[in-house]
């Protein structure tokens, strides 16, 4: 049983189910074994003749509809993300579902050796892809096939919603590829940009700033103000220069003495 703890495996074996749960991702997707688990604790509410032992989409949806009504009637708190992920065989969803069922029915906490880094509402194969070598990791089309199941598209045939899901998977794949290029530049033959090849030198320090910094550390406040004033005057005189220009004004009174020309 991959992904299940030892105490959880012992608990499932003690229930004497129809068949042993070896791979929760595929064994729990129909909901038949989930109903059989609850039938041991609620024999009056769960009638096994009402559930289908089939992996087709329609029988699965009927089984889970009955289970959702039972959860609502008994006020059993199971997140919908776990149920939807288990129906569509998402990575890690069935494991979290069976752990949640174990905690509800036995009133015990599942002991885990390590915590999952990925959020529990997004069931992707990123954790598996990270363990693979770079040449064996999935492409964009393979990532869509692994993380967007055909049953998920058949259950909800909204084209816009499915396109958004596919686009999100592609965007995550592009981000992962970008991180790989940054971590392994030699493998992807990454060449430094012209900006990275340029020599970075600190800007030259202004003389007035250097004098003021020196005075702040070594001079008294009175002398500091005097020197700062001198520095401001020097900077102002050196930066702004004025030149006197002589302009000859035209005597406009001479225009009034000219004779008026006739037509």
Please tag this protein with its features.
single chain; 263 residues; mainly alpha; 0% strand
Task: Report on this structure.
This protein has 263 residues and is mainly α. Helix content is 56%, strand content 0%. It has helices spanning 6-14, 24-27, 32-41, 57-74, 80-87, 93-106, 126-131, 140-147, 150-155, 159-183, 194-197, 207-218, 221-239, 253-256. Helix 5 (80-87) crosses helix 6 (93-106), helix 8 crosses helix 10 and helix 12 (207-218) runs antiparallel to helix 13 (221-239). The longest helix has 25 residues, at 159-183. The mean pLDDT is 80.
Work out the radius of gyration: 39 Å
Q: Hey, roughly how much beta strand do the residues contain?
A: under 5%
Number of extended strands: 0
- Poorly predicted ranges: none
The oligomeric state is single chain
Shape: elongated
Overall pLDDT metric: 80
Q: Tell me the structural class.
A: mainly alpha
Order of helices and strands: HHHHHHHHHHHHHH
Summarize the entry for a quick read.
The mean pLDDT is 80.
Give the arrangement of secondary structure elements.
Elements: H1 6-14, H2 24-27, H3 32-41, H4 57-74, H5 80-87, H6 93-106, H7 126-131, H8 140-147, H9 150-155, H10 159-183, H11 194-197, H12 207-218, H13 221-239, H14 253-256
